[in-house]
Design a protein that fits this description.
homodimer; alpha/beta; eleven-stranded mixed sheet; 45% helix; 17% strand; globular
Chain lengths: 332, 332
Amino acid sequence: MKIAIDAFGGDNSPDEVIKGAALAVEEYGVEIFLVGDKQLLKSRFDTLSVSGRNVEIIHADGIIGVEDNPTDIRKAKAGCSMGMTLKLVSQGVANAAVSAGSTAALVVGGTMVVGRLKGVKRPALATIMPSTNGFYMLLDVGANLECRAEMLLQFAVMGSVYMEKIMNIKNPRVGLLNVGTEDKKGRELELKALSLLSEAPVNFIGNIEGRDPILARCDVVVTDGFTGNVYLKVVEGMGSFMKVGFKTIFTTNIAAKIGYLLSKKGLKKFADSIDYKEVGGTPLLGCNGAVFKAHGSSDAHAFKNAIRQAREFVKRDVLREIEKNLKELGSL
Amino acid sequence: MKIAIDAFGGDNSPDEVIKGAALAVEEYGVEIFLVGDKQLLKSRFDTLSVSGRNVEIIHADGIIGVEDNPTDIRKAKAGCSMGMTLKLVSQGVANAAVSAGSTAALVVGGTMVVGRLKGVKRPALATIMPSTNGFYMLLDVGANLECRAEMLLQFAVMGSVYMEKIMNIKNPRVGLLNVGTEDKKGRELELKALSLLSEAPVNFIGNIEGRDPILARCDVVVTDGFTGNVYLKVVEGMGSFMKVGFKTIFTTNIAAKIGYLLSKKGLKKFADSIDYKEVGGTPLLGCNGAVFKAHGSSDAHAFKNAIRQAREFVKRDVLREIEKNLKELGSL
């Protein structure tokens, strides 16, 4: 399997990308196309003395940043590291693309360069989030700030396939994010989506509230990209809040410091469990190819995990399964 | 000062309401109108053997539940415990109203029975939330699922007054909840609101993301009621997640159990700090009177806190201050 990586995406590029790619080759036996300025990448490989085994450097000019117009990925910046990474997938040279670069550009590039799966209205960014008893998928987290009910319906189908195929959850429970569980709750969008989802070939459990997925009450949460993005960042903020709290708790006095030493292992494990970087990349579901967004602050470990997820995505043929399930939807 | 309390709102009514009212009389020297079925309340007072000092029972027939049509508070259910509580304020008999009953009914009742402050487009539910360094106000958390930019502008003004007057924060920093900090981010609503807020007589710091308020980067967060409600419940869910996590961490083995005993005090303090019930009630800002929503699961302590907040609201003349500041807005 061949995976294309944007070497110049994210806060820690290219060094952590390089290290993550090398780790992935080692652990998962994948082949990597590392995309970006060839000369610079070669020199970083030497400096870091990382093995280049099964890593091929593909040259690209420049990068697309968050300050750039995301649509530039189609023309003015088509040759940048992210643009070339996506092109390798659209040309069938690579099986998957991973980038920690500008989310907006990746959404445009995924949709326009790689293209949409047949019948997909809009691809969605779909994040795996930690719950008290495992994981759930939240989508959309920002590809489409405003959505139509038909889009939420497709998100439900795509998310269900992903959770079943990649996260091994049988018959995943789909919830519609709302301000209450009663059927009449919500905006026009939720009212319409509820009616569509009730008829859909997914395990729809109805309206859910913001706390429910966290308490492991559903496996796939569908919402518009504005709400999903806020949700995601509140979870992130609460994770940081907890870390700050731990620091205060366990440094107040000697007793608490000893207390920390005695419970350190469990605390570390818990802090990791709420750190969603651990899970890896965020797929842009609905593209006609495997496109993964890695977190902007990804380190080598996170890049490795994103590559692992992309590999599973290809291996388990998630695309064909999504296509099949969306077709079923069409005949409703 | 006279505060009217809906004795039949919330999961723990009327017993915890009665106890909370008695505590408030004791601690804050307020007078309470306890509104609901007179006979039942009298018998509960006897059974609980709670002092009835400075508590006057006002009879009301029935209650309005979450399953009822919220607009019934205006006519069919005008005489219920919540309806009568609000009427006491609109008639000038009580200075403030507190209820833990149906949020939707309280929003309708606050807006229609108590009425709006002059110039207010729509009242907003405004919750005080815990941050790593104190508190911030989030509004709207559900009174208006869809908002216009002008409403967010008024929310900013009302929230600023509240934080300054009640929470003693000088020149509170106002943030517009968005999916990124750049000016061009967001939906039509955020783009318009950004431009209005930039000209407003508040300390506007621009767009903020979901994690920022939690990390104490602003004091007032304005957003539409759908997004705000999801935000609130995600925070709640993450609080529960932490409690579940603590339980797991500190019961894994003997060492961790001892660790817990040594750091118990700090852990308890932290758990309380993220439990936003502690802060008390949620004002419905923009009504022509002090209207507070207590959390549905409030216990006596939470009711007491909500009453304290309502008392401060009246004492510091927040209504007149809001009116004054909204007038300034009008001349922009």
